[in-house]
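Q: My labmate handed me this sequence with no annotations at all. I'd like to see what the chain might look like in three dimensions before we decide whether it's worth expressing. Could you predict it?
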Amino acid sequence: MRLHFCSSWQRDRTHQVITYALFGGLLAYGVQAITDYQLDVFAISGSLVITIASLAYIGQVHTKELVTLGDYPQPRRWLAVTVTAFSTAAIVWIVPVDAAWHFSAIGFNSLDDIAYDARNGDLEKAQDGLQKFKRNLERSHELASWESYYPYQLGWNLGNLSKLYPAPEVRNQLGQEGLVWLKKGIQANPYQEFGYNSAAWLSLDRGNAKEAEAFFRRGLELVPAKRGLFYGLGSSLIRQNKSDAGFKAIAREWLNDPISITSPIWPAIDWQKQISLNSVPEILGNLSSNLPSTIAKLSGQGIAFQSVQQLDSLYNQLLATTPKQSDLYVQLLHTRAVVDWWLGKPNAVEQMQKVGNPTAQMLANALEDKKVALQSVLDNPSTPAEMAIAAWYKPEQRSSLLEKAWAMATRSLPDKDSAAIVDAMTKRMNQSTSLDEWLRKPLQPNDPLILRFRRERTGFGVISRHDDSTVPRGRLPPGGIECHNCHILLKPIPYPGNSGSIRVLAA
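A: Here is what I predict for the chain of 507 residues:
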């Protein structure tokens, strides 16, 4: 403030610009430092020292308080003691942090070998590698016990590796150890959804549905829009015979992530068991091959059917409380119409025409084979949905259009896997009598179009300020098994006006 009112500073335009620039940089850093100060990065801490020293020098010049060597006795002893003390404290703090990182790096290097040996039946070698991994991560936790990263990584990896062992006692032991370490991570950082989510699934594996429910609810408090949490909550509630609450939770999952309703395994889920990748073909094989919809023909006692009823109620509540002039209201109508069409409800395509959403109307026109109304789309398709519809009407360009649509929808370059998917989509379209059949006809077990995925926690390392380990992945709920061709025409987008806490279909 003294510098700002100094007359000599006001006349020096260059120093004014430098002062404001330096102060602006400090202010920006101060805002960023609220969540991540990163003073251990030399480039940041060094820049701060230079910035503060420059401001101090400008202040001394214009306030006539410039201190030069020789004018005053220098406090060399006091300064030396202070610098030595701070340097010693920094070394004492950084040494265990770096040592913890070193031990964890050694442990992470053995993870791929553990998984490879376990899958190939060399369980003794896998067990040796597992013990090495555990020892190193445990040592890292001892050295940096205030960090949640190491117990979270140890807990998640133990739970994940437990699925690779055929012996039930080994699986149970690793799962229990993983749960213990996840709880330690929660104690170190109780504000990270990852810990509660992972602990909830392991608790459910252990048969402790009540504990899993508590973890799922805490995770939802932290991240209400996290996909899979409401499914997990519903599963834990149903196992406790809290059926109505469980049905509603499943409906909330579909409301948050409507494309998950396209999963072909909802009717065949055994809610007393967890879904694994190995069980998917068996589940799909139990489905009737002539079902026009995977859910619409379920009996009134089915869990999926009950959740559909709850979904209708949720849509009714939202539509009743949302202003009709808002974009959110139009989006709700659009989403509900597309979901109703997928479920095989009557008049759904007609509703898609009425909602006023151009993409929904385009899909409705294609489903009703109104080629004239689609002429502009067929002449110049520019989105994945438009390319898929154009592929239906242009058999000679079908493969190339679907390849472009898939590349654009997934934002990835063509490769061997995508080529197999495009080939399967093309063959399926060639064998279909309508676009509706191409989209909704049940898939056969091991069909390339069955999308089996576990969502990666790509931000976990950034949040934890570690980037040298495996990226944790979520569990495999039914929403993690979908149809590839549905991703071209049915893609989730953020729900407007609701802070992303609900997700809808962009048909």
